[in-house]
Each structure stands twice: as C-alpha cells, then as structure tokens.
C-alpha cells in the first residue's frame, strides 16, 4: 500500500469514527430533552376531541410519562370536553391523574354562564385559565410545541 492510499484510508477511518461519535452524542442528548406540548381543542366535534386525547396518550408512550409535559387547552365549543357532561369525561379524569394538564378557558365559561345562567361544571382535575388563547400563546413562548388536531 502506498503512503498516499494509506493516508487516505486513515483519514476516512478517523472521519467515520468522528461521525459515529457525534451521532452517539446526538442520541444521548435526545434522551435528556424534556419535551413540552400544548394541544388546542376549540371544537365540539367528538372525533377531534378523541384525537387530541389519543395524541397525549401516544406521546406519553413514545417519550415516557416522565419525559413530556402535555397541556390540553379547551376554549369556545371545545370547552364541553372538560365538563361533567362530556362524552370523554372518564378519559379526561384518567389522563389528569397521569400527568396531562387540562385548562378550561375562563372567558368561555363566563360567556356560557351569562347565556344560560349556570356556570359549567368542570371535571375534577381540570384547571382554569383566564383566556385559553392567551394560555396557548404563553406556553409557546415557554418553548412548548403546538398542535391542533
């Protein structure tokens, strides 16, 4: 083997080891990342609400419950998802015990109360925020990823 071919082979080997090492570091860094997600629910469509809940469950399975923060924010017609009359009430209750945060829009609740004379009764474990849209914006400013199923 000539010196030039040997030097080329050695350079290739060193480069390969360097690339493999950087990929190993990238993989370990990915494991240490704390993922954060906000999910918007602003529709009374049961299918969409189920998809939002499925997204939360699937991401907890994918990353591990201790590696992801999830908050589902409901406002407008989507607020019904977080009330005691919700068709997904049992799932919301269960997920709230499994580290998924649920936030109900206070503005929507006030509007409903003005129209009906009765404040909506929220599922146990659901919190309230002054404005759902503002909460989504604030979470995004804190680095949360955003989806709307």
UniProtKB/TrEMBL annotation:
The lineage of its organism: Bacteria, Pseudomonadati, Pseudomonadota, Gammaproteobacteria, Thiotrichales. The keyword Signal applies. This is Uncharacterized protein. Residues 1-20 form the signal peptide. SUPFAM superfamilies: DsrEFH-like. It comes from the Bacteria. Keywords: Signal.
